[in-house]
């Protein structure tokens, strides 16, 4: 039910930097190191987006999407397209625009999925 960020200190030990309680248990997450965007999938089908501060001591909520009817299995943020992709236990693949928050589409898959990858080519 929580998101925790641990930082490696100069002495080599890890210390908690952020502790954030979520509305439902977390099922998956992805971090974009360039934008410091953290996308968290929850058991209730919600995907929540946060921005991590420069020093990783604070996370600010940006958007939440009701992406699925049940557990989110995988989330992926595609910086080049500004898309947030997700698959859920409900057997749907969905994609949202992370700038506008609009749902761009969904596709029902015939079997459950547990992985997601998006190749981007120029």
Automatic annotation (TrEMBL):
Q: List the record's Gene Ontology CC terms alphabetically.
A: early endosome
For the biological process aspect of GO, one term held by this record is: positive regulation of fat cell differentiation
Q: Where is the signal peptide?
A: none
Please identify the protein, giving its name as recorded.
Uncharacterized protein
Gene source species: Micrurus paraensis
**What phylogenetic lineage does the species belong to?**
Eukaryota, Metazoa, Chordata, Craniata, Vertebrata
